[in-house]
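Our collaborator T.R. sent over the components below with a one-line note: 'Predict the complex.' Nothing else. No constraints on interfaces, no templates requested, no preferences about which chain binds where. So this is a plain run: every listed entity goes in together, and whatever single assembly comes back becomes the starting point for the next discussion.
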Amino acid sequence: AANKKLLVLPGDGIGPEVMHEVRRVIDWMDRRRALSFEIEEGLVGGGAIDAVGSPCPDETVEKAKAADAVLFGSVGGPKWDSLPFEQRPELGILRLRKDLGLFANLRPALVMDPLVEASSLKPDIVRGVDIMVVRETVGGIYFGEPRGVETLPDGKRRGFDTDVYHEDEIARVARVAFDLARKRRGKVTSVEKANVMQSGRLWRAVVGEVQKAEYPDVALENMYADNCAMQLCSRPKQFDVILGNNLFGDVLSDLAAALTGSLGMLPSATLGAVDPATGKRHALYEPIHGSAPDIAGKGIANPCAQMLSFAMLLRWSFGLEEDAALLETAIEKVLAGGLRTADIMQPGMARVGTSVMGEAVLREL
Amino acid sequence: AANKKLLVLPGDGIGPEVMHEVRRVIDWMDRRRALSFEIEEGLVGGGAIDAVGSPCPDETVEKAKAADAVLFGSVGGPKWDSLPFEQRPELGILRLRKDLGLFANLRPALVMDPLVEASSLKPDIVRGVDIMVVRETVGGIYFGEPRGVETLPDGKRRGFDTDVYHEDEIARVARVAFDLARKRRGKVTSVEKANVMQSGRLWRAVVGEVQKAEYPDVALENMYADNCAMQLCSRPKQFDVILGNNLFGDVLSDLAAALTGSLGMLPSATLGAVDPATGKRHALYEPIHGSAPDIAGKGIANPCAQMLSFAMLLRWSFGLEEDAALLETAIEKVLAGGLRTADIMQPGMARVGTSVMGEAVLREL
Ligand SMILES: CC(C)[C@H](C(=O)O)[C@@H](O)C(=O)O
Ligand SMILES: CC(C)[C@H](C(=O)O)[C@@H](O)C(=O)O
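Returned assembly:
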């Protein structure tokens, strides 16, 4: 197979530890499967601030643009918490999304059978939950202008942000959601506050138009964001694909992830548009979990979410369905065999650290 | 006791049914306790649209301003769902909040012992949960200007909203949260997205300043909204008071309510500022649940949230702690006795309708 260019950005906290395990999986794939990767590493987040003074150096953006796919770890930590807004580690991921045009964030919230008990919800409520949250990630209140904190003539401060969506931005991410729903259970729940927000009113209108014109075979349900939070908590099985803007998608995808009880298991993909000239599509893959500074360096972090992010990468960026499934199955088998990292530990199971978990997956492969 | 002026706004859906049961409680208090109410009714929501063409007629606003307290039911239903933005039933409650200056919405999420099993969360996760969400309700993205849906020269649409907070708006609602925390377990969790929003950055700064200057005895924790949604779902007992802006407060208070599993039991209060001249404070009390059009008119709705809203009214607007507690205890006893409406039904309990539940509470009184 042709050389695939991968940019690996371990980032801060547990990022480097869990990425280390993925590198072993990549090496294995390089040797045993018909794949070959050309891997570059890059700086992002707090580590990049320390090294070169920026959470997302231009060099990293250039490398990301040149790569076929980006595998991202996680960024941030108390060390950088008091930095001013414009210099925070989080800007690393925000800039990558924006500069690469990664507008569709796909966040599966899947309850694997061996982990049903890990959830804070009752087993019968979460068993079989399989939700895909599709979140818009380059628009809305995250980037809208004007924004700022101004000081008024009387010395008082006022802070403001703009939530803004163009209909084309809504339509393209809606298509990603409808396409996914077609391959899944055929239902999209589009979430907004059309009852109080104008951008939400447009959101609802455009999603409805796209469905009517292009996806009459997919069921569309509109739901207010507050109600969606409630329903996720009380009856999560009703959902197939949830579609939301940058802000609601952020909160609701984290909620959907949390209800599985196994954050350390959940990957995500953020996809750009297909370039009509080259057929290429920028894409970044990262775990749902953050940099977990409290457990960083202890060797106890769960590497599965990062590995499953790599599986998503194989599937979405390279169409390597078989290799992706191989890795996913290996991880499931390790879990079924009773190994657990601390975050998903249950009575009667064997508690292991990051590298033992990684090794077990390699052995399964 | 002096005559208290109450405005009762039953609204749409199950509003009138559950309000009917509260009226019986009010009558009883009128006769048996040292209280006397002067009650007016008014139009709001879909019913007001049908009757006079506006979801919140001026007359209702005038009556609300003249009243000592407003008891609100719920508004909305499929009949009015296709009306244009400016004519929706929801504007009824939004206008009342705005015109009366009701800036602090207090939403308790309390898990009563007899109802632990009603939650979708595991009993050991929710037993003892007692959270108060304080939500700002007259500012932020709900009212910020500019807002609208515009058509661009090329015919494409763009929708936009402004999220804006003045530091005084943040400080006054923060004080409500800190005051409450002082009477509770002494902790406020302030929620925003200071990592991506400028208004969130100001929010965090101002809440911190108020705590430092005026409430050094109260613990303050800052949390991102996405993380808060996760934590509510996985470890709700860590929270005492949660403070959020209009939008995050909306979503997170509904989530907190949902995790109790007994929405039909939860009241809320929305308070204005104390008028320095009269000592009077506008206030509106309403259940957390909506108008539930699917069960309206069937006589099966749970009247408890509306009754508990009245208890909150007695406590917050009139300082009638004893009468409030009397009503709350009566409701708890009825539940302990095994009566349940459909929404909180459990095996082995007796399923009853709205009026039987109301009667049982009266009997307890
Ligand atoms: C780190 C932060 C800026 C980011 C976001 O809010 O988008 C994170 O919460 C996420 O969801 O990836
Ligand atoms: C009806 C609607 C406008 C309202 C809101 O979003 O504030 C409701 O969800 C609430 O929380 O009271």
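Summary for T.R.: Chain B has two domains: 1-108+264-365, 120-260.
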